[in-house]
Amino acid sequence: MNDLKEQLQLQKYLEENGLYEKSFEHDNCGVGFVASYQGENSHRIVSMGLKAVACLTHRGAVDADMVTGDGAGIMIQIPKKLFATYIEEMGHRRPDEDSIGVGMIFLPREDIDKQDMCRSLVESALMEFNFKLYAWRYVPVNPEVLGPKANQSRPQIEQVLIGKPEGMSNEDFETKLFLIQKKLMRDADRHSLAGDLYICSLSSERIVFKGLFNGNQVSQFYDDLNSEEMVSPYCIFHQRYSTNTFPSWALAQPFRILAHNGEINTIAGNRIWMLAREEELECKKWGEYQKEIHPIIRPHMSDSASLDNAMEAIVRSGKDVLQAKAMLVPNAWSKNLTMSEELKSFYEYNNTLIEPWDGPAALAFAEGDWIGGALDRNGLRPARYAVTEDGLLVMGSEAGLVQVEEELVIKKGRLGPGEMIGINLKEKKLYYNEDINSLFEKKYDYREWSKENVSYLNQDLDSSINETITYKGDDLRRRQILFAYSPFKQKSVIKPQAHQGKEAISSMGDDTPLSILMLSRIGLYTYFRQRFAQVTNPPIDYMREKGVTSLYTRLVKKMNLFGDEKPQNCLVLSHPYLTNLDLKRIREMEGKPYKILTLDATFEAHLETEASQSRNYLETALDALLDQALKAATSGTNILILSDKKLSKERAPIPM
What we know:
By secondary structure, the protein is of the alpha+beta class. Among the domains are: 79-204, 2-Layer Sandwich (Alpha-Beta Plaits); 595-656. It has helices at 4-16, 43-54, 80-89, 112-128, 148-152, 170-190, 218-221, 267-277, 303-316, 321-328, 341-351, 433-443, 446-453, 473-482, 487-500, 580-587, 611-634, and strands at residues 30-36, 72-77, 100-107, 132-138, 156-163, 198-203, 206-211, 234-239, 258-262, 361-367, 370-375, 384-388, 392-396, 409-414, 420-424, 429-431, 454-456, 553-555, 570-573, 596-600, 602-604, 639-643, 651-653. A 7-stranded antiparallel sheet has the order 7-2-8-1-13-12-14, covered by helices on one side. It has a 5-stranded antiparallel sheet with strand order 9-10-11-15-16. A 4-stranded antiparallel sheet has the order 4-5-3-6, sandwiched between helices. The longest helix is centred in the last third of the chain and has 24 residues, at 611-634. It is globular and about 90 Å long. The protein starts with a helix and ends with a strand. One of its GO terms (molecular function) is metal ion binding. Belongs to the glutamate synthase family. This is Glutamate synthase [NADPH] large chain. Keywords: 3Fe-4S, Amino-acid biosynthesis, Flavoprotein, FMN, Glutamate biosynthesis, Glutamine amidotransferase, Iron, Iron-sulfur, Metal-binding, Oxidoreductase, Transferase.
């Protein structure tokens, strides 16, 4: 299908009929960076990055037109001298280089009215923050190198050149540009321009050149990149492979802080948790614009874009990019016998702030003084690196991406699971994984924080306490029916587990019909199916991969993600299964320091009524339960126990 309009119509049809969901988007790619740890700021590094991304075309994909790629791009430090010259050539007085900010922006190419509306939104936002708008600069491009599909969807690519107000620090400048970017996306939503305005980068530090092409077309498409004045101390590069998505200009990488090769398996939960907590998140640096950053995670983007959104918000709240990475994509720490207690406490503290964004991941990132790369805690993506005598650090999805003289190589290797490597550009210093860990250990007394405020529930079985509850006769039968314990399930599932302590072995193949089509009485849980990464993930088993997996579960709400305060009263369970004894122990914690309330999760079944009317009783009971939970939470209750133990002949349990 060569016509872009037909493809968009197909995508719309699939969405409307439940066959395609943007939130399921994943991608798998090639990624890396070239950087100097000796302060070299040159076109040589940019050129090396461009050659490296051209060597990654085999990690991308090509459309049926044999030209359009899934997306590729680079991120470099803004060449301030060059942009100061651009501003001077446009009739302005040559600005101080530290005062320059640049936005790389995609606009609708064929709709001039929408173009003007998008520019007006940008200009209004800059005016609100008292920034100087020097000019809009058309970015020279060569569309003839694009495939037909890429060219049909090609945006108008322009740069907005910005001046910092006098007296504003560089850190505040970057923070305000972040707030402007988030405000612009909210404004675009309000004006129905969300699909027309896209900000590749808006920064005083970094600039992104990307598009819907393959790696060998990046320098061919963007003329600017071939200028000797296009200099940088680093170059992050990325070649996208769209595993189960529709490629687009906006989803090409790098994003605003990172480039990511992998899949975030936990992405649905990560997005929902961030949405659930964002109303309570506060950052003093954002002042009156706290709400302008919402939503923190932009909808309808890929998993990599969502990870970038989260990292960007954490960094702009005041944490450095290394800590942001350690929070979002942590090392496996709880069972690591070689890790120091100080470093374990650092990760334990982060665990009270946010849940891991877990899945195969090779990352390259740049922000502030840092440029670096990292792997996920399972090490499920390749990341090779080489350090040269003339001051270069090269990291990539494979060795040999950048041509360096072998006699200049002083060290080479690969990142292990959870490891990082990076350069502090200000210090002109190379940091290996152990050096970065040392920074984490020394930042705060995380060990004392965790000791004082994180407690673990004793979930050991105590044989001296009889917690067994026995049901017999009609009472037992009623409960089996209510909770869908069929004779087959009792024989084939429960009995083997009780006798052998493990799941029964069965042959492959599952001819069980969809739950909605089943005639027998079944439980609510059977309507849910486990989602999994279909393309590149090896299976991971908790018993066989104990070193990198954990069943620990936190109770009590997480702290402010954007703060640096001590953890408060975090209760940790060693596993998510609660026995009656566990519940008893939790209830005994009432008032020290937990406020605990048990809510009845049963309702009057009215069995004599018709099914449609019974459904109304269930809905009414569920609404009432939600109201009770909300009132309890607003009054300070921090642990709610939903109990269906009051079920009887007249009362049925609300499915949980």
